[in-house]
Amino acid sequence: MNRAIDFLLGSTMRWLLLALAVIFPLVTDNEYHIYVMALAFIWAIAVYGMNIITGYCGQLNLAHGGFFAIGAYVVAILTVDHGWPFWPAFLAAGLFGAVFGFVVGIVSLRLKEHYFAIFTLCVGYIIYLMIDKWEALTHGSLGIINIAPPEGFGLVDFTQTIPFYYLVLAFLALAIWLTRRISESLLGRTFRAIRISDDLAQSLGINLMRNKVLAFVISTVYAAAAGGLYAGVVRFIGPEEANFIHTFDMIAYLLVGGIGTLMGPLLGTLVITWLTQAVQSLEEYRMIVFGPMLVLLVIFFPRGIVGTFLGWRGRRMARQAPRKTRESRVEQSDPHGADSKEARNNA
């Protein structure tokens, strides 16, 4: 019964959020707000990738922003320097993300805990240096401009804000659906077993290296795909896209929303994005306001917004379970109890 209730509540929330996202451009006449929401959806896709390797598998990848930049640069280089259309370049970005993720994962995942985190932080910095210094390939600090946007079809033009918003929303819905399928599958349970304990997972016959590398590759494909979409909407990128600050931003999105939860990456990204927009008018003083707000969120919601809600709901259902059990036992021991009670009330 509890699992059925959880499924219905979770499904209802997902459909409600989807409906709100679909009607958002219809209820606002501010194109800038639609643009900001589309960018938030792109970052949320990357955060879902981080949730797979960090939230489900328990490996803190500090090079995640670098893989986001790899996807963006693959699309930029292929469309600008080689004349590729956007969609083949986008598919190539996902492929490059998988290949680079496999190579880095094979090497880095031999390390554990903070050693793995430090190694991936170095990898992220190496990616940044390569993008900044390899001018023949990446154009160096000048960046790449006039990146090709996604090709539309019929009357749909993805160079316009609203069509591109719905395109990104479709990719976000696909990312959430894939994440849910992974989470509920045997593979997702395997990832969570590794997160709990490497030794326990190995004693159960789980191949640690193979599953860790698989989780790493899946996460880098998410990041590279998000980077490719980002290049298509912004149409200009530079070395700052590989800055490790973006990785820490995504960690903040994940922690605020709820690490290891299905809807946490989306809610965390949206909350922080719009909080940032709300204090943007303060200019250089905005971090003085935004910083304490983020600290308060972490203090009062240590498991994130979604994680705190799920914990509260679990405790509430646990308190209700014994009472329902006692009531059912009373009814079984006195099948006429309900009729007697009704008779007493009528009297």
From TrEMBL:
On the tree of life, the source organism's domain of life is Bacteria
- Compositional bias of kind Basic and acidic residues: 324-347
The record's annotation in PANTHER family points to:
HIGH-AFFINITY BRANCHED-CHAIN AMINO ACID TRANSPORT PROTEIN BRAE, HIGH-AFFINITY BRANCHED-CHAIN AMINO ACID TRANSPORT SYSTEM PERMEASE
Where does it reside?
Cell inner membrane
Q: What is this protein called?
A: Branched-chain amino acid ABC transporter permease protein
Recorded GO terms, molecular function? branched-chain amino acid transmembrane transporter activity
The reply to whether Cell membrane figures as a keyword in the UniProt entry is yes
| Keywords on record | Cell membrane, Membrane, Transmembrane, Transmembrane helix
GO-annotated cellular components: plasma membrane
Phosphoprotein recorded as keyword: no
Its record classes its membrane topology as: Multi-pass membrane protein
- Bilayer-crossing residues are 7-26, 32-50, 62-80, 86-107, 114-131, 162-179, 213-238, 250-275, 287-312
